[in-house]
């Protein structure tokens, strides 16, 4: 059948493949250079709000890449390449380093950073993380390490050990994209974490899906029963905010309050946007 469709089709396909491979290789070369020179990678910070909306409880550091030709790239456009060529650990380390520098200027605010699953195969995760943080004199208690369910589920003794030691050293551990990874909850019995982050795919459908709202309610009760902080991701509407606040979700993060912003924008733009969102959602509440 493939033959019957003719030679041209195959040629097109081969050309596309070539392009893809070329683009990927190009990205890899550029990414290595960016990591070497420290030019191009940037971190944006997205605020996390308390559920009464009165204060910023923390920030999440999210990497971007200002590519010389392609413009500002979101993580979805380069993290998988980074992963394939073994660069994701270096990106994470760079983000942590950068975040610690910012934290010296922004006293008190806790900041969350994302750890790629590859971090857990390095064997020296604990040493690298504690070293970076110590060099900047940042209190580990102000740093939250976001991991995905996959990391806890994989039977990797050294990564489990690293996580325990990090937590003992004072770092907080958050489970990112909660509910999307695996249906097994047994790891919650074996590993202590501090926070679960309800994945935005559930939050997005809250307004119109009974199922989504049941799942979110169940995750919030699970978190509460286990004494974990529960953060909702991807909060975009006032209805979502009100429902999540009603359920007793502890923190919220989403475009409703602020998109991720570069550091200089944090104090100015970030905070006014959030104030406005809260006033619109809770008109009865005096803003303080
Ligand atoms: P994540 O850790 O779950 O981060 C949340 C993502 O949702 C971010 O996308 C954020 O910009 C986006 N977001 C926030 N609020 C809203 C909203 O209201 N609506 C919608 N639709 N999206 C919202 P971003 O920055 O593109 O990052 C995507 C993913 O890339 C992150 O998901 C995280 O898994 C990964 N990532 C980002 N930075 C790093 C990093 O430094 N290291 C590692 N290993 N992964 C990172
Ligand atoms: Mg995250
Ligand atoms: Mg997430
Ligand atoms: Mg994610």
Determine Rg (CA atoms, Å): 21 Å
Q: Tell me, what's the shape?
A: globular
Mean pLDDT: 87
Order of strands in the sheet with most strands: 1-2-4-5-6-7-8-9
Give a quick account of the main beta sheet: strands, pairing sense, barrel closure. 8 strands, mixed, barrel
Let me know the number of strands. Answer: 10
Structural class: alpha/beta
Helix residue percentage: 40-55%
Please render the helix and strand layout as text.
Blueprint: H1 7-37, E1 41-50, E2 56-67, E3 71-73, H2 79-84, H3 88-105, E4 111-114, H4 125-135, E5 143-148, H5 149-153, H6 157-168, E6 172-178, H7 187-190, E7 195-198, H8 200-204, H9 210-225, E8 229-232, H10 238-247, E9 251-252, E10 261-262, H11 263-281
Parallel strand pairs: 2-4, 4-5, 5-6, 6-7, 7-8, 8-9
Antiparallel strand pairs: 1-2, 1-9, 1-10, 2-3
Helix pairs in contact: 3-4, 4-6, 10-11
The site of ligand C2E has 26 residues, from strand 2, helix 3 and strand 6.
């Amino acid at each position: 059948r493939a033959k019957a469709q003719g030679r041209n089709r195959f040629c097109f396909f081969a050309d596309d493949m070539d392009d893809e491979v070329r683009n990927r290789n190009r990205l890899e070369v550029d990414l290595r250079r960016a990591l070497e020179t420290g030019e191009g990678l940037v971190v944006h910070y997205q605020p996390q709000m308390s559920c009464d909306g009165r204060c910023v409880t923390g920030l999440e550091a999210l990497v971007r890449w200002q590519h010389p030709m392609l413009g500002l790239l979101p993580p979805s456009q380069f993290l998988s390449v980074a992963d394939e060529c073994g660069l994701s650990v270096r990106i994470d380390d760079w983000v942590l380093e950068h975040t610690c520098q910012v934290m010296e200027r922004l006293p008190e605010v806790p900041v969350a950073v994302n750890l790629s699953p590859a971090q857990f195969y390095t064997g020296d995760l604990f040493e690298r993380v504690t070293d970076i943080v110590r060099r900047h004199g940042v209190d580990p208690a102000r740093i939250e390490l976001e991991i995905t369910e996959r990391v806890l589920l994989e039977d990797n003794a050294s990564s489990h050990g690293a996580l325990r030691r990090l937590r003992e050293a004072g770092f907080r551990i958050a489970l990112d994209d909660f509910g999307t990874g695996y249906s097994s909850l047994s790891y919650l019995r074996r590993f202590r974490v501090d926070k679960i982050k309800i994945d935005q795919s559930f939050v997005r459908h809250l307004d119109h899906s009974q199922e989504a709202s049941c799942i979110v309610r169940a995750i919030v009760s699970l978190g509460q029963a286990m004494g974990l902080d529960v953060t909702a991701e991807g909060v975009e509407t006032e209805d979502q905010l009100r429902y999540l606040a009603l359920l007793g979700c502890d923190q919220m993060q989403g475009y409703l309050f602020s998109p991720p912003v570069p550091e200089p924008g944090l104090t100015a733009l970030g905070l006014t946007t959030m104030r406005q969102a809260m006033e619109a959602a809770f008109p009865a509440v005096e803003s303080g």
